[in-house]
Prior knowledge:
Layout: H1 14-20, E1 31-35, H2 45-54, E2 55-57, E3 63-72, E4 75-85, E5 88-93, H3 99-111, H4 123-126, E6 128-135, E7 141-155, E8 169-175, E9 178-183
Antiparallel strand pairs: 1-6, 2-5, 3-4, 5-8, 6-7, 7-8, 7-9
Amino acid sequence: MARNQVNPPPLRTISDFKSKLTGGGARANLFEVVLTFPDAAAPAQEVLDKSRFLVKGARLPASNIAQIEVPFRGRVLKIAGDRTFDSWTVTVINDTDFAIRSAFENWMNTINKLSDNTGLVNPAAYQSDAFVFQLDRDGQSIRKYRFYDTFPTQVGPIELSYDAQGIQEFTVELQVQYIEILKGDSPVSGGENIS
């Protein structure tokens, strides 16, 4: 197999850099998370609408391909193995009605009840999809991530203290079966659909 030859790079200028950053750069604070819940734990629509505002932090997904090492006469050939997906964590602002926290606690309770260690056994009954929209400065989506068949494995603690100030926040860790990545609706959207 022939290797591609690469020429040395020419001198780059700030004007060259500016011409390549046509969208002004994707901003970490321009995103929206859309949560869905399985039917067995579905909260009111108001809670779902609220979550679009009160999920204040999330990550775009990590995706990993493991390596398989195959020994051969003193050397090791590395080949691609299976793809895995890291757990996905969101950070939620807690309102006084505890609506989103309660929805996640209820979801976990349908999977495994606090009182008697029973719950739903069919994954289709307790898993649901979630979405992250990366937005441009005009509020249009430039990239969409769909997390398939998620379910919560931890609703994080809320620290209480007499000397604490500020609004409560908590995290939720969800497991992800797989993801789909889609080009957004904005005219400046880049990339391609990956599924």
